[in-house]
Design brief:
This protein is α/β, with parallel strands linked by helices. The protein is built from 23 helices and 20 strands. The longest helix has 15 residues.
Length: 554
Amino acid sequence: MNISVSELIVRYLERLGIDHIFGMPGAHVLPIYDRLHDSGVKSVLVKHEQGAAFMAGGYARVSHQPSACIATAGPGATNLITGIANAYAERLPVLAITGETSTYIFGKGGLQESTGEGGAIDQGALFASITRYHKLVERTDYLGQVLNQATQALLGREPGPVLLSIPYNVQKELVDDGVLEQVHFPGKSAIRHTTPTAELTGLLHAAHNPVIVAGHGCIQAGARDVVAAFSERFNIPVATSLKAKGVVAEGTPLSLGCLGVTSNGNAYRYIAGHADLLIFLGAGFNERTSYLWDAKLLANKKIAQVDRDAAQLGRVFQPDVAICGDIRATMEDVFDVLEADGMPPKSRDLLDSHQAASAQPAGANVAAQAESFRLMQAFFGGLARRFPHNALVFDDNIVFAQSYFDVSDRNHYFPNSGISSLGHAIPAAIGARCFAKDSPAFAILGDGGFQMCCMEMMTAVNYGIPLNVVVINNGTLSLIRKNQFQLYGERYIDCDFANPDFGLLAQSFGVNHYRIESEAELDALFADADLTGTINLIEILLDKHVFPRYLSAR
């Protein structure tokens, strides 16, 4: 049966399991929008196309499934770029659909043309380095192959974003609906390790103070429970990267917390001072996690690395044992072998004394800094107590959460990593909430980032999507002010700004507003406010003259 290409694209979305598409209509994508009208795919109208890409990314991060965004040609497509770049850095399966002028006017100067012909901008070139696959679909005779390649890029071993740009006249052409039969949807067969685990078990037998460094790959592999059980059975402490907070419940004896330059340093001190074996599980050891590649973390230690991506093995450091394969399957095998061998649990004497020392009152300088941030510490403490499980926390600030937020093994923490764009948290949390409809969601960001994306709160209002937006109000771009204080002789420029009245802004949006200046007001917020079923703008005041004293990269 013949159907329009626009209808075929909508059916393709349904075959991918996509039930929401985030975007903004324009003349060049109206044929697709028209077919969405009667489909099972719900369209979500955003306020800016960047928000659409971030929403699709948030949906993909929570669901571990493909998501989609849509924009018109020209500026609609270019506005997607930052969000798609973030999806590329995060390896998120985001399908971006954009329109294009009709093929018969290519190169003639059509409105918003972006084909690269006749001096027009080349949209494909703009997206080439931030997508796994991109295609301007000029004909229908190869549409099946195009959709198949798009599917392999979205659902393959190393997923990432895909761009399909479809000219207006091509969307209206007729094709046989059997084209979809040419699309092969890859299964989710487990990736088995390609290197025997005997060497890793040997290192574990020999080690006195091994430490697991768990990365985001543990979460992607669904290995949280295996890693936690392994840690508990053999008394092996776990440090995590920022993106892996909560792989082992933080605040428990075997959790060293987060390893990273903006953290409280607990994991760093134990690893540098005591560990004799580090087992990296899906952790990239990037600038933040490695303390700018501090040699003390790896010195005089055996190192094992397990990762599903062969390109990660040995990329930053030389492991003694490298295993390319599924982290869950690998650790299950190692667990079974060590159980069969009867390996006893490791001694916890050093770990217990380290944890006890870390719990002692801090020195005067550290204590003074902690006092400056008492509201942030109290907020994250209250958040952990009020929502011990099932919360979705999207955090653009990350600095305070890394030290103060004990993420449980049943919560979900999503730091703004990727390309670390401001204006990410609110749209990403909205996208996530479209999938996880019963999970309380928090978007945490500074006041500078808030002013980049606050209009998307109206998207949440329009669709009745419950959301808590937490704005750190200090009237400055904190990272810039900190760097200008530490590295540029306090020559402040373009870091300070005026904020709107957040209460009046919330009133104009039709959402609740809470202004937090004391711990008592925080206690009341968590005790009395509806943080699960309404939209709330929560403003926490912070002095712009205080900030964490870690040094950023120069």
